[in-house]
What does this fold into?
Amino acid sequence: MASRNWLCWACLLGAICLCAADASAQLLGSAPKELQDVGIIDKRGAQVPLDVPFVDSNGRKLTLGQLLDGSRPTLLTLNYSNCPMLCSLQLNGLFDALGDMPWNMGDEFRMITVSIDPAELPQRAELTKQKYLKRYGRAGAAAGWRCLTGTEENIRKVANSVGFHYRFVPERNEYSHAAATMVLTPDGQVSRYMYGVVYDPQTVRLSLVEAGKGKVGSPLDQVILMCFHYDEAKGRYGPAANTVMRFGGVLTILGIGCMVLVFRRRSMVHRGGGGEVAAPAADRNQTESVG
It folds into this structure.
């Protein structure tokens, strides 16, 4: 009887899974055309092309290799100035987080924004840059953020290198894309993805510390990074259970050791004190006998 009930439950669970899989397939198959082939493919460890030429918002020709100085991590975003909504939401959230950090753009880290619209002119990119620099409100930040424009071919090379897939929607004259900020190492490798339009300042800072490979951040930041790990589901850093347990074990051992030393020291002092008291008494008895 029990085995028959188990078989019934197993069949029911299998039917539910098949229905769920079929529903998921239908949803994927019925995705709007604008969202097909759009998204992010995780390419951590991939190298961005350093020799691809662009034009910055001041009209200067340069490559990504010229902007990566080998000593500071870089935030990379792919947006475009005429985006009706998502790009603004993403940059608003990112600059709000940067504004809550003690670090300054251009000092501890840099930022690069590549326009995914090949028709965008440097002058338009400069207007966008000034808008967000005003929101950021930090002196000298302009030199730490470069907004780049380029050809379709060169934009695609950078986008593909970091797994950023987007498409142009002619009917709406706009681009369909995801919202993500890539964190690059000082030499231009993808270290971390931060998704969405709301960013946690601590997550941004620890992501930069991690990407900096010991070249940015204080010793305390490095210790914190050892105790925390990036939670992909939550999109932020949280305590690493194994590390916390190891540290807890070490602290427990140190605590027990300190207690043993304290008790041992007190015992030695007590024994020494008893000897010092007995000696004067013996001396007095000898003196009385002599008298």
